[in-house]
Amino acid sequence: MDDDRFRLLVQGVLDYGIFMLDTEGRVASWNAGAERIEGYAAEEIIGRHFSVFYPAEDVAAGKPVRELEIAVAEGRLEDEGWRLRKDGTRFWADVVITALYDERGELRGFGKVTRDVTERRAAEAALRESEERFRLLVQSVQDYAIFMLDTGGCIASWNAGAERIKGYAAEEIIGRHFSVFYPAEDVAAGKPVRELEIAVAEGRLEDEGWRLRKDGTRFWANVVITALYDEQGRLHGFGKVTRDMTERRNAEQALRERRRLVGHLVEAQEVERRRIAWDVHDESIQSMVAVGMRLQLLASRLPEPHASAVSGLDESVSAAIGRLRGLVSRLRPPELDRHGLVEAVSAYVEEVAGRWGLAHSVQDDLTAEPSPEAAITVYRICQEALSNVHRHARATRVAVSLSTVDNGTLVRITDDGIGTAGGDAGAGHFGLVEMHERAEAAHGWLSVRSAPGEGTAVEFWLPLLPDVPELEP
Ligand SMILES: Nc1ncnc2c1ncn2[C@@H]1O[C@H](COP(=O)(O)OP(=O)(O)OP(=O)(O)O)[C@@H](O)[C@H]1O
Ligand SMILES: [Mg+2]
């Protein structure tokens, strides 16, 4: 390229201020970029000393002159710092000064390339600030232990939550290997190292288990380890987030235990009811039937008025048998054993709603028959819900629907009554409590929805298969 074209190129560049200084540091040439960045036109600045670009304090400290000296001594000099525009405003400049020599090796002056990097600097500062804020956030989090491990598993950072949960202060623990958090048997089994290997292989690892506090006590931890990579894709270390789940675990265990107990109770109650039902059926009813037959026989042989008196006795016995049969079927609905759930519920609704003068319907959308235990639970909850409709709702109709949803049996009992007041019915009211407990003991749920004047909907769901019992660690 000849000199002219080269000169044109340099002059046209807008993004860089490119200009020459003579050996004394006076501006000897100027380009469009320099005019744009520094604000001087060529004729205003050529011949002036380049220290006009420096803030007063830098000039007082001799910085412009020193920069030329360094450029002479070392060939070039690079600097970042504040510079002044013509209007006195500052910009953050990236400056390179190069010493220029002629063929004979004599210093001819300096080339100077200046870039305005104010925006880049602002962006970097913003990034630094947001990183700083993020660091503060992480450090102050109390509920989670959040810390870093280096590639070898030694602790590299620590936060307030880690101190709270594990009991170590930052200065006690940083630099130590994270296997100190694991019980001896886990360390012996190589678990800490294996967890890091899995995190590397799969990106992350989640684990629940016992961990040690500084004082040697154990807590039940939920742990997530994430492998951290730098921009070049090299493993940089690990992020570790640990939660103390001891309380939640205790609460879950208490709940499981409660369910187990309620389950036993409900089962014992059913067994007892069945036994009483059988006893009443096999002994009381059978012998009363026999008594009835004898009375009929006797009446046919006796003269009046004795025959009528004995017939009257026979009628009383029959009425008593009818009431006992009703008791037996409430204790142990025979339809449940013989015909299945829908028939049993239908028969019950038919009987009681008819007696109470309620319009009624039973909708059957079951596609799977629930287990005998679940069927009993459904039946009992329906009984209790219907008795509530009768006693409290002042309804004109009641509807029961059964369907198979989500691998379970969903049952809805709705009335068009006054609605429940909501909240706790208080002492001496066990119906709703028992309904909830029965549903939960069967690993399902129950909810009561009601708005004043809009009736009540009791809805519950029981799984078709009881949960697989959770493994105890
Ligand atoms: N279908 C309903 N319509 C209107 N109110 C209802 C209905 N079901 C329940 N309630 C209200 O909710 C309260 C609590 O019901 P729950 O079955 O727990 O107790 P209870 O029926 O009063 O007594 P218990 O069932 O122990 O004999 C009832 O007292 C009643 O006020
Ligand atoms: Mg009740």
TrEMBL record:
Residues 77-129, 205-257 form the PAC domain. CDD domains: HATPase_UhpB-NarQ-NarX-like, PAS. Gene3D superfamilies: 1.20.5.1930, Histidine kinase-like ATPase, C-terminal domain, PAS domain. The keyword Transmembrane does not apply. Residues 2-55, 130-183 form the PAS domain. PROSITE patterns: PAC, PAS. GO terms for biological process: regulation of DNA-templated transcription. SMART domains: HATPase_c (SM00387), PAC (SM00086), PAS (SM00091). GO terms for molecular function: phosphorelay sensor kinase activity; protein dimerization activity. Keywords: Kinase, Transferase, Two-component regulatory system. One of its GO terms (cellular component) is membrane. This is Two-component system sensor kinase.
